[in-house]
Amino acid sequence: MPVGTQATVKGLRNEALEELGAEILLSNTYHLYLRPGHEAVERLGGLHRFMSWPHAILTDSGGFQVFSLAGLRKVTDEGVRFRSHVDGSEHLLTPEKAAEIQLALGSDIAMVLDECIETPAPREKAEAAVARTTAWAARARKYFLEQASRNGEVRQWQFGIVQGATFADLRRASAEQLLESDFPGYAVGGLAVGEPHALTCAMTGEVTALLPRDRPRYLMGVGKPEQIADYVSLGIDMMDCVLPTRAARHACLYTSAGRVLIKNARYARDQRPPDLSCSCSVCRRYTRAYLRHLFAAGELTAAILATHHNVHFYLDLMRQIREAIKFGNLANFSSEMHARYAVGPA
After folding, report:
1. Integer angstrom CA distances of residue 180 from 103, 110, 168
2. Which residues contact 97 (CB under 8 A, 6 or more apart)?
3. Reduced to 3 states, what is the DSSP secondary structure of residue 301?
4. What proportion of the chain, given as a percentage, has pLDDT over 70?
């Protein structure tokens, strides 16, 4: 899922996203709650109409952003009290409030509020976070179902989020506890935050082994191109990451041959497309030399073109993974991706 934090994928018009074949975007509850406000979005017809995106939208709960505020927030069993990074105003985000905001936004998939902690974390802190995440999930589910009962059909799915840091038994316990709330989908949170990739995979595997195979399983905030197939092989269906758009703004292109740092002097006279095997409109029309020139000149177009290519690369990577699954070739595909990206950027 391309990440559209503030109801937009940085550097791309929605027309471009549709051209690229994006079917679902991720937006951020925390940011939209603070600006322009969920009530304003609701009055304007909901998030789909507000951002003119008729396809699916997933909104996260805002928990990760709130917990990232460090000294500006305080966590209790009630919820998280925090100060806005926009104007310093004080707010209380509870499981019920996070669900209320997302119902007002009208997203297709809404994440419950969970407690995110740093990794590595002491076991006692991870245990407390799991207990709080479970309690908050139950409260969010109860509120959501009450609203659905009161207001009729709610065209939104609510997902629970598994926590547990890097403790396998806590991960399993968190998953088992969330199953009692009978969510239509489940996410694995709190991973890919600095721990080794092998450990991310190990913890993910502990969770997906317990989650229903007939419901979406979502690994949050991943990942590097060479890692995606590994997560899919563990049973993950959905992923999101700011990496393709953020890297593009820093002149890093993801290609079939590995990472390309397009600002390098070696590309000043390179008339080849950014990726020789890519069919996106950027690679069909522009050269490496031109893209390097745009970045060197500080032109906005540089980030726009690089973002277009990187988002295409990730979406095409998912198409290739689905094809590899059909032909029983996922393991080989994963090995080839790791080999291509084993060397440093060019």
Report:
1. 22, 18, 19
2. 79
3. helix
4. 100
- Residues whose CB is less than 8 angstroms from the CB of residue 119 and which lie 6 or more positions away in sequence, other chains included: 165, 166, 190, 191, 193, 194, 195
Q: DSSP for 18-86, please give it.
A: HHHT--EEEEEHHHHHHTT-HHHHHHTT-HHHHTT--SEEEEE-SHHHHHTTGGGEEE-SS-EEEE-TT
Predicted pLDDT of residue 306:
98
Q: Quote the tokens at residue 9.
A: 């994928």
Indicate the angle between helix axes 95-105 and 123-151, nearest 10 degrees.
Answer: 50
User: Within the chain, which residues score under 70 in pLDDT?
Assistant: none
Catalytic annotation, residues? 60, 240
Q: Which residues pair with 261 in a beta bridge?
A: 252
Give how far Cα 75 sits from Cα of 33, 128, 170, 337, Å.
19, 12, 20, 41
What confidence tens digit (pLDDT) does each residue in 116-155 have?
998 899 999 999 999 999 999 999 999 999 999 998 888 9
**Distance between CA 39 and CA 272 in Å, rounded?**
49
Strand order in the sheet with 24-28: 24-28, 56-60, 109-111, 157-162, 185-188, 217-219, 238-239
Domains plus CATH for the chain? 14-241 (3.20.20.105), 246-340 (no CATH)
| Residues whose CB falls within 8 Å of the CB of residue 14, separated by 6 or more in sequence, listed in order | 51, 52, 53
Q: Which residue has the tokens 């509850």?
A: 29
- Residue 66's pLDDT is what? 82
Note the pLDDT tens digit of each residue in 38-49. 999 999 999 999
The burial of 182, by beta-carbon neighbours within 10 Å (0-12 exposed, 13-18 middle, 19 or more buried), is given as exposed
Provide the token pair at 115. 């407690």
Q: Are 53 and 6 in contact (CB under 8 A)?
A: no
Q: Do 162 and 111 form a contact (C-beta atoms < 8 A)?
A: no
Question: Is-contact 342 257, C-beta < 8 A?
Answer: no
pTM: 0.96
Q: How far apart are CA 287 and CA 289, in angstroms?
A: 5
